[in-house]
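INFO  loader      accepted 1 record
INFO  loader      residues=333
INFO  predictor   begin
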Amino acid sequence: MERTPRRIFVSDCEGPITKNDNAAELADAFIPKGDRFFGKISLYDDYLAEVVRKPGYKAGDTLRLILPFFKAFGLDDNNMIKFSRRNIEMIPQADCMLREILDIVPAYVVSTSYSPYIRAVCDALGFPVMNTYSTAVSLDKYELIQSEKKLLRELHARIVDLPDFSIPAHASSADDLSEADRATVRVLDEIFWTTLSSMRINRMIEEVNPIGGREKAMAIEKIRDREGADLRDVFYVGDSITDVEAFRLVRSGGGMALSFNGNDWAVREASFAVTAQTALPIGWLAMLFVNQGTRGFQDLMMGEISPDSTQRIADMSCRVRKSVRTEKIGSLG
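INFO  predictor   done
INFO  writer      dumping tokens
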């Protein structure tokens, strides 16, 4: 007897559902020159996760690296919650899209974002928080002594003053960076893996586990087990480097990995890419998958990602990403 598919919809939050980068916005609001500071750490995160593939490190660990600096500049749990609740910006029609999908198939959100933000989004959308995976964190749990607070502020100033650096396309080792950029990375290595690792507040970095990279892939496996479904029945939508491992897992199992206004990292690993100003195309494509599986995509008039088309699609996707989520947020990994 032919198996009846048990389709599942799984989405990242920031990008497909909201315009925010909550961690970047918290940094901008509570850390001096926070946009510049966060941008450097985010690019360093890309370098560690996908260029040198540092053991024990994964895409999205930016969210643990910046935690001691939030403490040093006075952010606490209450302010994190209040800020997250009042600064949600939805992708147009995301609420309609999610409601329609929830009426038909199990739907989940797997996000690298901090849990207070995800709970706030769930409250705004009426989405079940039990169907979410996100980065659990409590700033109030950790004590910061005065001498370490002073040192963290000095390290922050040092990071902000570092020259801008870049990662060449398809870089696969530190040798692919310019000498100047390698020097910048060496300073960041020393700050995070020598200086900070010897401090008491480094417990935050050691204990908080962002849901990015392989953790997103593991969440999909847990969802699949919970729902009694195969990977080929999973529709996953994401937009950034933190979705790469999830994309690879879903594609390897024959499911659908959709890049929505994705950056270069996402487009390179997705099955298909779509760019749009609203979330409605996500819903249309999800329903197509529910009814026909991946074969439903064979007749679509859209560009399938191939080695020859990846860069063209990535360039177009990045342009729309920045127009939807702003230039600053759209440029982050």
